[in-house]
Design goal:
- By secondary structure, this protein is an alpha/beta fold.
- Helices cover 30% and strands 22% of the residues.
- It has a 9-stranded mixed sheet. An 8-stranded parallel β-barrel has the order 2-3-4-5-6-7-8-9.
- Helix 6 links the parallel strand 5 and strand 6.
- The two termini are 17 Å apart.
- Bound molecules: pyridoxal-5'-phosphate (PLP).
């Protein structure tokens, strides 16, 4: 067993997939976003999703697609970023669905006259100002060009910059998408997909949508805006949201999303050494920490080399169901925690998972949710359990 590792539970991934698909029967196709090595979970989870209703996938690059195909050769797979023209042969071998970001790309692509019957998705820029078409006429022209080519226009999509929990920009983006696609007959395009997991959870299905994309939530995180508690601050926040919605006539936000999702990733390590430290002694780099009492510490084989970052905003780890704080600086490969006499050198330490939620980890490290999953998942030995 590696000193530090992540456990990925495939049965949990399968259950999350079943719960999502059952919750949103109004969507015909679920596109599981598995970029970033499936948010650090690795492509070993693909079939747990595929066998449980998530039947289409999205990756970011040809490299990711190649890794995906080692696990699954049949699932339709959209490359969200435009494949370099000189790699179309690879894309064909990987049976990729291509995203078309603009007219320049489309023209060069059509000129290549590939043998492979590529399926294409037109990307619409509804206000993100990243990839995608911004001109209505051009979008129509692109659709016509594809229609008279040997390829299939299978999809059209955009990506939201905001989720509209209390901002007016969500509605504006959706209106923009409708406007930009108004010259197309959307009913003839099998997959019209908008947004991401948060948009799926927080809003009713837009009538034009036939498919949806989601990332984070598949891995077990309920990111819906129902996380408000009942404290004074939470009530104030809910009131603010309501005020914005009335003021700007915004579309309704669904808050109480009852959807059972369980995190599939747990990060664990062993203890390298237990040590007694006397009051007044220093611990770690820069002698930055001084023991304010006699204490016992445990040295852990975890540092920023394991993808957790180097910030420590009150980080704790879990041992036998109890929390223990980090003391001293987090190094490249090691850090120390303050323990008590109950902790034994053979005890298992949990850094993420069980009582240590992703939200807590985010506060400890100052990292974003997906960023944590990537850092932890990609930088440690992965062990799949079924
Ligand atoms: C990453 C990504 C998603 C998934 O977003 P989540 O917030 O993880 O649900 C969906 N669509 C596109 C285009 C993406 O890049």
């Amino acid at each position: 067993m590696a000193d530090t590792y992540v456990e990925i539970n495939r049965s949990i991934m399968a259950q999350n997939a079943r719960n999502i698909v059952a919750k949103y029967p109004e969507y015909g196709t679920f596109i599981g976003i598995v970029k970033g090595d499936a948010y650090g979970h690795g492509y070993g989870i693909i079939n747990a999703l595929y066998d449980n209703g998530i039947r289409y996938f999205g990756v970011s690059s040809t490299e990711e697609a190649a890794d995906f195909r080692k696990e699954n050769t049949e699932a339709p797979l959209l490359c969200l970023e435009p494949v370099a023209i000189d790699r179309l042969a690879e894309a064909a071998a990987l049976k990729l669905t291509l995203a078309i970001p603009d007219m320049e790309y489309l023209k060069v692509f059509l000129d290549c006259k590939c043998d492979y019957p590529f399926k294409l998705h037109i990307q619409i820029d509804s206000g993100f100002n990243r990839l995608g078409f911004k001109d209505k006429q051009e979008i129509k022209e692109a659709a016509d060009m594809i229609e008279s080519s040997p390829y299939t226009l299978e999809g059209v999509y955009q990506h939201y910059a905001t989720a509209g929990i209390f901002d007016p920009y969500y509605d504006a983006q959706q209106a923009k998408f409708r406007e930009l696609t108004s010259l197309l007959d959307l009913s003839k395009i099998p997959l019209v997909h908008l947004g991401s997991g948060i948009a799926l959870m927080a809003h009713k299905k837009p009538d034009i949508a036939t498919a949806t994309r989601m990332g984070l939530m598949m891995y077990g995180y309920n990111i819906s805006p129902d996380s408000y508690g009942h404290g004074v601050k939470d009530r104030l926040r809910a009131m603010r949201d309501e005020y914005y919605h009335k003021k700007y006539h915004l579309s309704e936000v669904i808050r109480d999303v009852e959807l059972e999702l369980t995190p599939a990733m747990t990060m664990k390590c062993r203890i390298l050494q237990l040590k007694d430290v006397n009051k007044g002694e220093h611990i770690g780099y820069g002698a930055a920490y001084t023991a304010d009492e006699d204490m016992r510490i445990a040295v852990l084989p975890v540092g920023y080399n394991n993808g957790i970052g180097h910030h420590d905003h009150g980080r704790v780890v879990e041992i036998n169901g109890r929390f223990y704080p980090v003391v001293g600086e987090i190094g490249m490969n090691m850090m120390c925690i303050k323990v008590d006499r109950d902790v034994k050198s053979s005890d298992e330490v949990i850094l993420l998972g069980d009582k240590i939620t992703l939200g807590m980890f985010s506060r400890f490290s100052g990292m974003g949710l997906a960023e944590i999953m990537l850092g932890v998942g990609k930088n440690n030995t992965r062990i799949y359990i079924d």
